[in-house]
Structures are given as structure tokens and as C-alpha cells.
Amino acid sequence: MGIKGITITLFDRVQSGLDEFNRPIYREKAVPVKNVLIGEPSTQEIVDERNLSGKVLAYTLAIPKGDTHEWENKRVEFFGEIFEVIGKPTQGLDNLIPLSWNKKVKVSRYGQE
Which of 81, 82, 102 minimizes the C-alpha distance to 92? Predict the structure, then answer.
């Protein structure tokens, strides 16, 4: 039996119309993302992130290869809690990574500084 992740919910922004000035109006749409690994950051990673962004790093997510979602500035839900993505995801080259995941996303608890 191989490694298998869980399904998390990504809250994506989709355009729902235009305002009176013809500017787009957005709403959040819950999108399930399957096979995501949830990792606990090291103490050093938590300290480094706090020093760089002011955010408290809660988890690191490993996103499966082939995922095309935009992760920056989004919210995600798993373990019954809401988290916000910190910064931009980092991504490796698919053919140089032997497992099913090639993107790393850092998250903090929503609303926590």
C-alpha cells in the first residue's frame, strides 16, 4: 500500500458578475482537491516563517502533480478548520520527483497572526 493523501477544500475565487462600474464581482467556490499530504513543519520552519511574513506556520501541504489550481492568497479547509495560504507555492520538476506530489503550500490558521 502506497502513500495516499486526503481530500481538502480549496476556496477558489470565481467571477459572479459585474458591479455598477463594470468591475468584476467575485465569490468563493469550494473546490475539493484530492490526495493532498499534510505535514507538520519543524520548529525552525515556524520561526523562519514568523520572521519573514509575520504568520504562524501551521502545516505544509504537498499538492499532487497535475494540479492546476491557483493557491496564492486562498483559504483551505481540512481537519475541520480553515487555513490561509502563506506566500506562493513552491514547485519542483515533475520528472525529477519520484512520488505523486510536486508542489508545496504553506498554511497558517485563518485569522491568526
Answer: 102
Question: pLDDT tens across 77-103, in order?
Answer: 999 999 999 999 988 777 777 778 889
- Residues 83-110, buried b or exposed e (16+ Cβ, 10 A)? bbbbeebeeeeeeeeeebbbbbbbbbee
Domains of the chain plus CATH, in order, are 6-16+32-109 (2.40.10)
Closest CA to 65 of 104, 39, 101, 33: 101
Residue 63 sits at φ, ψ, to 5 deg, of -100, 135
Q: Which of 22, 3, 9, 25 is nearest to 107 (CA)?
A: 9
How far does CA 80 lie from the centroid of its chain? Answer: 15
Are 106 and 49 within 8 A, CB to CB? yes
Residue 112's pLDDT band (boundaries 50, 70, 90)?
Answer: low
